[in-house]
Amino acid sequence: MKLATRPLVPFLLTAFTAAVLTACGGGGDDGATPIAQPEATRAQDTRTSFAVVPFDNTTAYPDYEAGAGGKASFTALAGTDTDRWTGTLGGAGYRVEVPRNWNGKLVMYAHGYRGTGDALTVSNPSVRKYLIDNGYAWAASSYSKNYYDVRAGVEDTNALANAFQQIARNNGRLLATPTKVYITGHSMGGHIAAAAVEAETIATANNVVRYAGAVPMCGVTGDMALFDTFTAMQVAAQAVAGVPNHPLTRWNEIAADVNAKLWLTAPGAGSPIVPTPVEGERFVSIVKNLTGGERPLFRLALQRGGSFPSAYGTFGGDGTVTGILNSWGTDTRAFTYTIDGDTVNTSAINAAAQKVSETPDANRLRRDGLRWVPQVNGEFSVPVVAIHTLGDLFVPFSMIQAYRQRAEAEGNGGRLVTRAIRGISHCDFTVSEQVEAVDAMLKWEGGGAKPTGDDVTTAATVAAPTYGCTHTRAAVGGTDTGTTVALRNLIGLAGGACPAP
């Protein structure tokens, strides 16, 4: 399976980089801090009205990740004995929880995309109970800015990890420096978790943490390739509908006509999403091949999973990831648009489709810290377990495929375990699937055997009817969210259920 992924950027380890790699261990930031130099500005830099929503241990905030029941308060879990602290750090809110029987290790949690509002909120990890039951402390930041600001997410999460001891001390508990620090996250937080262990991040971040392992879940582990894919979807939609050269930023002018060509029930207009029998089916085939190729449950995911409208809703953007970049940053030149079994129309669409090019250096290395969209190059030296649902069409399965390809290209394939989960929406894992992934990484990092995973890049393997069954677990009412239970029930009704492990 050949994926349209960007060329890797070789990263040379300078003397400074080597110093950082050897100096920053545990949770303390005892490595050198790069000297910030003036940089170009972008829309995100002018957004200064973000504010932490006042909170305490009993306030419940919206929690968009799986396993949290929709809202997550910070009261003690039943049967646990922990210290729980909240506060603000560098303009970001935080939650920190430490069991009384702390094992000396810390897990950082990175939440997903929070939209474009000003309110900054923080989430509990979906694996909170597992961590506390096993003696791990955890901490999570709201980040100091919303939007798709992975740079802020990495820096603020790292700053919180480095402040862990001081926060405990300020609250009357003297703790040693964590012996190990790990990171996990969902969606944009999966991008943060994957980027946080990259050599480039360790060398260029202003807040440095050397994580011992990572678990990106439903993560944007292809970094800008996600936004390239959204642009490619729009390019293909316009080509199939017969308006290939209409300016991409003026999508609203043609959206109604394109929708009429492609959909009987358009994304966002109701469920199930239903394509038209000719042009619509051609576009659906292209989308399947753009997002990971032939795989179980794709059709059900498109029609009923609920994540495709979010991808379709990105059409018309200006290529800056809503102001995270200051110039057009997406590129479609590496994509091929494939309609299964139809070489004539495949050729016609590829000939007609716009070829979109990024502005040179739109996401170059910065002089004042991380890239504006930190890269996931596959240059990491710690164990990573990544999980992704087959039917995710907002952060599609192609993201974990890109991660595998990049890690292999950098000689780090042996450090990455990838798992395919038979979910049909974005981040709709069961809690047990997430716990097993985190547990697998922690035991592996601690000297245990390398965990089992799934081949995510061999087309015939991914297309097999039972693909993804190995690490898929049934939803449990009262533990998993109602949405996750409903989606897994839908899979069962459609004949997509797996045999019991």
Characterize the largest beta sheet: strand count, sense, and whether it forms a barrel. Answer: 8 strands, mixed
CATH topology-level name of the largest domain = Rossmann fold
CATH architecture of the largest domain: 3-Layer(aba) Sandwich
Number of domains: 2
Uncertain runs: 7-32, 64-70
Please state the overall shape, judged from the principal axes of the Cα atoms: globular
Helix content: 25-40%
Mean pLDDT: 90
Superfamily (CATH H level) name of the largest domain: Alpha/Beta hydrolase fold, catalytic domain
- Secondary structure category: alpha/beta
Task: Tell me the β content.
Answer: 5-15%
Q: Which radius of gyration do the C-alpha atoms yield?
A: 22 Å
| Number of helical elements | 16
| Series of H and E elements | HHEEEEEEEHEHEHHEHHEEHHHHEHEHHH
- Name of the CATH first level of the largest domain: Alpha Beta
- For the secondary structure, the number of strands is 14
Q: What is the first-to-last residue Cα distance?
A: 28 Å
Protein name: Alpha/beta hydrolase
Organism: Ramlibacter pallidus
Keywords: Hydrolase, Signal
GO molecular function: hydrolase activity
What's this, in brief?
InterPro entries: AB_hydrolase_fold (IPR029058). The chain has 501 residues and is an alpha/beta fold.
